[in-house]
Every structure is written in structure tokens, then in C-alpha cells.
Design goal:
The chain is an alpha+beta fold. It has helices at about 20-35, 60-70, 145-150, and strands at about 40-45, 75, 80-90, 100-110, 115-125.
Length: about 180
């Protein structure tokens, strides 16, 4: 007889029936899943009327490229006659790092007469990972302990410089007139 009774999930004025509780659980679950859907971001150059690959070698000039595409995303640091139009799409989900979905780089090179001599389209597949060096470059001076960093500026005025750091060429400190080491 007890098994046929509808048991509320709470006792008192806030008692919920099982179908209502199931509905609330489904609503909370869908809100949780919606929070984990990826957010797509597009960065960089977005073509409106003309694609960068529609630029014709020998026919277009720097002025026509600017009128068709606008200013470039960046200009080459070593050759001012090479322009880059860069587009990137990535997905970010919750707290995770963004995942790169696509990248398009169009390189447009000009000659001395400002005519297009080359249009090169690159994608994410044309890129490659760089092997970063894990070692650190040593710097001049000395490292401060955490206590020196916390207490180092107390009573020193607004300069914030420790006395031993007055001569950065000398790792042991000392003023301009001090002489340490072999002579």
C-alpha cells in the first residue's frame, strides 16, 4: 500500500512531486550542458566583397588592393612590399584553452612599381610548431628572496631600490666607487 502513494521529495510547503522534480532536474541539466557548448570566435581580416585570393598578379596595384580589401592585417617586418591578410577561427569551451579551427593567411607581394607580383594563400596545414628553448637566459644582478621582495621597500622612500642594486654591473652590489673582485 505504501508503494502506491506518491512520495514528495520534501516535507512541508516546498514539497515537489516527482514529475516536477524531474522537470527541474532536466532544466538544470540542460543549463549545465549549454554552459559547456563552445563559443566560436573569428579574429583578424574578414572579407566582405572580395576575397584576397581574387587579387590578380600583374593587373592589381597597391591602390586597388587597398580599395578592394582595405588595409592589411600586418606588413612584413623585413620587406615593406609584402602585405598579409590573416583570418583565424577558434572555439573556446568553458575554462579550457581555445582550440584553433582554421587559419588563413594570404600574402600579397608588390614590386617597385607597386604592382602585385605574387599572391600566396596559406592555411593551418601549412604552418608548423616551433620548438621553444626551455632554458632561460641569465640576467645581470641577483635574485631577491621572497622576504627581500616583501620587505625591501620599507623605509627606502619612493625609489624602491635596494642599496646593493645601485651598481647593476656588480652582482654583489656596492656603489660606483666600490671595488670588488680581482684587480
Amino acid at each position: 500500500m505504501l508503494s502506491r502513494l506518491a512520495f514528495p521529495l520534501a516535507i512541508g510547503p516546498l514539497a515537489l512531486s516527482r514529475p516536477l522534480a524531474l522537470g527541474a532536474a532536466l532544466l538544470a541539466g540542460s543549463a549545465f550542458v549549454a554552459g559547456c557548448t563552445p563559443v566560436t570566435a573569428m579574429n583578424g581580416f574578414i572579407a566582405v566583397d572580395t576575397q584576397p585570393t581574387d587579387i590578380k598578379v600583374g593587373a592589381d596595384t597597391r591602390a586597388t588592393v587597398t580599395s578592394k580589401l582595405g588595409s592589411p592585417s600586418t606588413v612584413s617586418a623585413f620587406d615593406k612590399n609584402t602585405w598579409y591578410y590573416i583570418t583565424q577561427t577558434s572555439d573556446k569551451m568553458a575554462y579550457l584553452y581555445p582550440q584553433l579551427k582554421s587559419r588563413k593567411v594570404v600574402s600579397i607581394s608588390f614590386d617597385k612599381d607597386q604592382k602585385v607580383i605574387e599572391v600566396k594563400a596559406l592555411t593551418l596545414k601549412d604552418g608548423y610548431e616551433l620548438a621553444y628553448e626551455k632554458r632561460e637566459t641569465p640576467t645581470r644582478g641577483r635574485e631577491l628572496s621572497w622576504i627581500e621582495q616583501v620587505l625591501g621597500t620599507i623605509g627606502r622612500g619612493s625609489t624602491g631600490v635596494l642599496p646593493q642594486d645601485m651598481d647593476p654591473g656588480n652582482p654583489r652590489g656596492g656603489g660606483a666607487g666600490s671595488q670588488t673582485g680581482p684587480h
